[in-house]
Amino acid sequence: MIEEVDNESSSESSSESSSGNSAADWADIHARVDAAAEATNAARHRDIEFSEEILALRARKLAQPLARPEDANVDGAIVARLGETLVAFSLGHVVEILRPRGLTALPGSQPPATLVIGWRGRVVTVLDLNSARATGGPAVTETTRILILGERRGMLGVLVDDVDTVRSVRTDQVHPAPSAFGGADWVRGMTDDAIVVADVPVLLAQYDK
């Protein structure tokens, strides 16, 4: 009888322990799911805010009277991060900002035109201008985005590590870039606060084939 009682007690104890572990596991799973959902929602709201800011800037630009000569050198720009470098892309050329879903490597391609993505029923070339990534640098992360750039019928994507802000850039105050960037044809120059200014028409002419 003692052995039977001990066995039952052991069984009950084991059952309680298993039940406790199960409850703890489910609690952990629910916490992780909630955290992932919160992060996803935060990223989605961030993308919406950027899109709304872009649309608002475009609307204000269209509503403005003809620019005075001193205003002609002010251009709106999306500032994105490529590795440790901030790069400004003219707002007038940014069509859309995408998450890198469906991004595909292009076999046999040469940098920086190494990727493609499906967008609005067409295949768009995506440039990876971050040379650090090409040599084993940071991989695509939660903040990675694709800027869809366009001019008339031309379309091209640029992979960026993050979208930093929307701001105005004085094109008459863009200086020659240091040698680290000056060798790239797509670099127009650098601002006083060390933001590289991209020459989007050059990118489109070279890579939108």
- In whole angstroms, the N-to-C terminal distance is 87 Å
Helix content: 25-40%
Poorly predicted tracts of residues: 1-22, 62-70
- Sheet bearing the most strands, described? 6 strands, mixed
Structural class: alpha+beta
Determine Rg (CA atoms, Å): 26 Å
Within the largest sheet, what's the order of strands?
3-7-8-6-5-4
Q: What is the strand tally?
A: 11
Assess the beta-strand content as a share of residues: 25-35%
Shape designation: globular
**What is the overall number of helices?**
4
Q: What is the averaged pLDDT score? A: 75
Task: Please write the string of helix (H) and strand (E) elements.
Answer: HEEEEEEHEEEHEEH
Brief account:
The chain is α+β, with helices and mostly antiparallel strands and 209 residues long. The chain has four helices and eleven strands, in the order αββββββαβββαββα.
Word description of this protein:
- About 35% of the residues lie in helices and about 30% in strands.
- With about 210 residues, it is α+β, with helices and mostly antiparallel strands.
- It has a six-stranded mixed sheet with strand order 3-7-8-6-5-4. A five-stranded mixed sheet has the order 9-1-2-11-10, covered by helices on one side.
- About 20% of the residues are buried.
- Mean pLDDT is about 75; it is low at about 1-20 and about 60-70.
Features:
209 residues; alpha+beta; 6-stranded mixed beta sheet; 5-stranded mixed beta sheet; 4 helices
